[in-house]
Amino acid sequence: AHLSRRLSFPTVLDYTRQMLAAVAYAHRKRVMHCDIKPDNFIVFGDGHVEYAETFTLSSVFFDAGGQRQPT
Question: Tell me: the pLDDT tens digits for 3-19?
């Protein structure tokens, strides 16, 4: 669904902060997503934003020796 109205600047900043926090969380878990886009986020009625991608196009971080890094 698309927005039916223009968002206020503070709301945009809040959504952006939540989106970045969600991606940072995935990176801390050693998952790098390769297709981050607005369609992968859900904005709930109360303003809560969640990352809803299944990570089908993601990669796990590996070290220089090709070993998977712990999550």
Answer: 678 889 999 999 999 98
